[in-house]
Amino acid sequence: MDYTVGELARRAGLTVRTLHHYEELGLLRPSGRSEAGYRRYGEADVLRLHRVLALRDAGVPLKAIAPLLDGETPQPLAAVLQAQIEQIEAQLLAQETLLQTLRNAARRLELHGDGGDAMQVLLDAMQIRRVHERWFSPAQMRALRQRWQALPEADRDAVEAEWPGLIRDARAAMDSGCDPGAPEVQALVRRWLVLQQQFMAVAPGMKDTMRRMYAAEPELARQSGVTPELIAYLRRSKDTLPAEAQAQEKP
Length: 251
Description:
Elements: H1 5-12, H2 16-24, E1 32-33, E2 39-40, H3 43-57, H4 62-69, H5 77-112, H6 118-135, H7 138-150, H8 153-175, H9 183-202, H10 207-216, H11 218-224, H12 228-238, H13 243-246
Antiparallel strand pairs: 1-2
Helix pairs in contact: 3-4, 5-6, 8-9, 9-12
């Protein structure tokens, strides 16, 4: 039994236009023609259409399906599926990164306001996203995000809320000319080291990259206030701490 293009489309739940498109791509050509020249599809065509739809529904791009079904050296299905997996994973990572960017911007507005300049907050968040993409691989960014999200929400909120105030207080001490060895500055450094260790526990193996990034990216210093001058000031203060405290991470 054979079918006209309309009959096959109806039975397969497709449109005639879709079958014509598949023919243009070389995915499904009618095996016969009627005396009037109309397309006729036989059993082999129906089986091929089934394979095309199965591959399509598995996420294989239409242009990649024909080499799987035809040719002297068709590309192995496993290789095609792996390439598709990698493509989808990259798309998901991009979406996850964008989602995190928007969440960070919303969180910053919620906690700190930033003068009501919501557009600048969003632009800042997008800029930081680009900075991170220059310094960390997609796999590193995903691992960092997963580890951070695994922490209790209360712990994440506490750290995110404390950093801005700590940076602000440290800058105020530096700008006022306060002696780095003063007890109030030492207290800031101690808390800084604790927060830094908490973050480094979430980002193992990224310490050196983090330091190079902050040294090389002025945009990070502008947004966070963690300038090279502030880092130098905090290190001088750390040098005045007892030896056991100095054994912790450098600011």
